[in-house]
Predict the 3D structure of the following.
Amino acid sequence: MGDKKKLGVVLSGGGARGFAHLGLLQVLEEMKVRPEVIAGTSAGAIAAAFYADGYKPKEIVDILMERSFIRYAELSLPRSGGIMRLTGIKSLLEKKLKSKNIEDLEIPVIICATNMNTGESVFFSKGALVERVLASASIPVIFQLIDIDGFQYADGGVLNNMPVEPIKDKVDVILGVNVTAPSEKKDLHSVFEIAERSFHLSISANVNIQARLCDYYIEMPELMEYSLLKSSHGKEIFDVGYMKAKQYFKNHPLNLD
């Protein structure tokens, strides 16, 4: 028998909807499938970092549900580039992640962030883990930009919410998971709702191009009813991701032979 094909997993951004990624990873665990590499943007980068650091999907849910994403943040001065700073999520990552650098993780991970100075997507495969995860998850205007090596970084989804390119030459099979597939949204009221909706509509276009590069592709438009910044429904969102992945692989068996 020949070697099994190498699987690469790509996890989109999506704030609290990223709990669905953990449901997908739980299904892969039950299938006894281990990715060769994981690429992630924003929430996908957070899920990838914890999973590649050795945590089980359900353990990660419990860790991230301690507080809402808004409560992980704090107000910042306007000159800092965003309404809020990700102070709480930074301390959580520093406390819980055992690996200090991306290259220390048990599974190779590639983190996508946006260099706001050059206007380019950047794919981090080494360097300080927490700093780069925060850069990938800093939604522009809402959250403060993250400084790395003299450049300012924001959420990877600004330009690339489904970072397939950095892994396509490293694996034989690519599985993409999109938790921000757009659906109709009624009654937009608050500034956060409008900012959130604008951000999602802007990133949905770049996902469509990347999705065509995937051998397997799961999208979850039903998650759009869940707020980007509220993690109180984390277990419910995890279940949506789990059931969606189970059904998907029932209809599209994952073939790595």
